[in-house]
Write a structure and sequence with these properties.
- 54% of the residues lie in helices and 1% in strands.
- The protein is mainly alpha-helical.
- Helix 1 packs across helix 2 and helix 9 runs antiparallel to helix 10.
- It is elongated.
- The relative contact order is 0.15.
- The N terminus is likely disordered.
Length: 450
């Protein structure tokens, strides 16, 4: 199992607070706020992602898409002004509606749906994690069942939430990414041989000489329109000193010499390696949780926030991987030693897949676009996700909380962190943010209201 102890104090503290609050609520008969129900499940979702073996940013993004969608679809019938987005998605179709004339408890429906989709989509997780899912589900069920005071309402609501989750999970099994953790690397893959193509790095995060999920770009997108987005424009390969392509790598090379301490802190903060964190899309899901906890919205808006976020980062990663393997481009650790300085090494090790465009940038752009639409252009917040992690001794850098005045400010730093790390050239990040914004706007453009 992954080592997660280094990560407990920051993110895991929220989960522990949730458990304590649940215990107190049961003792005092006090109902949790609706946003507390939604964020408790989001916390556990990220904990499962962080502690499940063979996880990856690609697989995690996909999971978040289905988990967030399930949260929304399990409660939307309870809000007359809102509507399901199921028929607007890529092949899902209409989902069952509640029985007319009968009462439902939508908190119970959400609770059951989240437990069911988590158990299904992370079937490979540990027995300890499955027990956590069961425990959280039962804790909330006990609280809301006492409120309902009608066993028929309880069972009907639970059944509805589970049914929604099961139908969405069945749809997920046909997207091309089902149980993809069993095939992270294709050892039969034949690399493209061309100037400037990706090569297995010597200074790397993974020992694999094969790139991660090379076929991910064939997966079905949540929104059909996202699969038709035009590919980003790429600066043509040219090793001539002074050429546009050469200058992209020269900027990375020069930046490595003058990194400030704050830039080093940004580089390690947003690395979000799957071995020790909840991955980059999980970090975006966590930012959604920050927004929800700060504003304390009703159950519908909280669920819609996670649905928009999940589908946005899922489609961002799918498109990013499609383009990564179409362009199949090198990173600075290949170009710089060959054409600028043979002794150069990046601040951060390379991930095991091609460079263009940046996965961090595209998913951050999609996430910022979604959150800005829901919570405004000027949303001040502090990201404490990694607070408490031990100092990175290799790079002599601490994990310090990051403060932002907007979601786009956070997205831009996410992208720049990869430039600081020396693993992305500027065009990787710039094109990633641009395409992420398109994907986020497509998700925002779904008809969420009647």
């Amino acid at each position: 199992m992954k080592k997660v102890s280094v990560y407990m104090p920051g993110f895991f503290a929220c989960l522990m607070v949730c458990w304590i609050a649940l215990s107190c609520n049961q003792a005092n008969k006090k109902l949790p706020e609706d946003y507390e129900l939604a964020t408790a499940w989001a916390d556990l979702t990220n904990f499962i992602a962080m502690t499940t073996p063979a996880n990856s940013p690609t697989f995690a993004s996909r999971c978040l898409g289905y988990i967030g969608l399930t949260m929304y679809e399990s409660v939307v019938p309870g809000y007359p002004g809102a509507q399901s987005v199921a028929t607007q998605l890529n092949g899902l179709g209409a989902l069952p509606q509640p029985e007319k004339g009968l009462s439902y408890n939508w908190q119970l429906a959400l609770n059951a749906g989240q437990a069911e989709i988590l158990r299904s989509i992370y079937i490979q997780t540990s027995d300890q994690n499955k027990a956590k899912i069961d425990s959280l589900e039962q804790a909330f069920k006990t609280i809301y069942a006492e409120q309902a005071k009608d066993n028929a309402i309880v069972e009907r609501s639970v059944a509805y939430g589970k049914n929604i989750a099961q139908l969405i999970f069945e749809w997920s099994k046909t997207d091309g990414g089902h149980r993809a953790y069993l095939r992270n690397f294709d050892k039969q893959l034949v690399f493209a041989e061309k100037p400037g193509s990706w090569k297995p790095p010597l200074f790397a995060q993974s020992f694999s000489h094969f790139p991660l999920h090379p076929h991910w770009g064939r997966n079905r997108t949540f929104l059909a329109v996202d699969s038709a987005i035009e590919p980003p424009v790429f600066i043509p390969y040219d090793t001539t000193p002074g050429s546009a392509y050469y200058q992209q790598f020269k900027q990375v090379y020069e930046k490595r010499k003058i990194l400030t301490q704050d830039e080093k802190e940004a580089a390690i903060w947003w690395s979000d390696d799957p071995d020790v964190t909840f991955t980059p899309p999980g970090h975006s899901y966590y930012l959604a949780t920050i927004a929800i906890r700060k504003t304390k919205p009703d159950l519908l808006k909280a669920a819609e926030t996670y649905a928009r976020m999940g589908m946005a980062v899922a489609d961002a990663f799918r498109n990013c991987w499609k383009w990564k393997f179409e362009f199949f481009t090198e990173r600075a650790n290949t170009f710089v030693p060959q054409h600028i300085d043979e002794h150069w090494e990046s601040f951060w090790p390379d991930p095991p897949f091609p460079a263009f465009p940046s996965g961090h940038a595209i998913q951050a752009g999609a996430a910022a676009t979604v959150l800005t639409s829901l919570y405004g252009d000027h949303f001040e917040f502090t990201d404490s996700a990694h607070v408490g992690r031990p100092k990175d001794e290799i790079r002599d850098t601490e994990f310090k909380a990051r403060h932002f005045n907007s979601f786009w400010e956070a997205a831009e730093e996410t992208a720049m962190s990869r430039f600081y790390g020396g693993i992305h050239i500027p065009q990787d990040n710039e094109r990633g943010l641009e395409k992420g914004k398109i994907i986020g706007n497509n998700v925002n453009g779904l008809h969420w209201n009647k």
